[in-house]
């Protein structure tokens, strides 16, 4: 997995990336099995496409979750 992090997004050819819109996950699977299914389908969880947009993701083992960050952002926009 470490080698999947090492890339320059400016040099990535979008057509070589998997589209997250094509990923289908069985919600009846355990969390661990869903994570495996996601990685198996997306190939690189650090760089993929969402439609025509290239997405680069960085994961942290600690700190705020994406849900917490999005909640804070939305609340700040409503204030």
UniProtKB/TrEMBL annotation:
<feature type="domain" description="DUF6870">
    <location>
        <begin position="4"/>
        <end position="74"/>
    </location>
</feature>
<protein>
    <recommendedName>
        <fullName>DUF6870 domain-containing protein</fullName>
    </recommendedName>
</protein>
<dbReference type="InterPro" id="IPR049222">
    <property type="entry name" value="DUF6870"/>
</dbReference>
<dbReference type="Pfam" id="PF21757">
    <property type="entry name" value="DUF6870"/>
</dbReference>
């Amino acid at each position: 997995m470490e080698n999947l992090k090492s890339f320059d997004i400016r040099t990535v050819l979008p057509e070589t990336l998997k589209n997250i819109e094509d990923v289908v996950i069985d919600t009846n699977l355990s969390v661990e099995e869903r994570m495996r299914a996601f990685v198996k389908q997306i190939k690189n969880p650090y760089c993929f496409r969402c439609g025509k947009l290239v997405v680069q993701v960085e994961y942290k083992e600690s700190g705020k979750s994406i849900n917490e960050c999005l909640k804070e952002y939305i609340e700040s926009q409503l204030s």
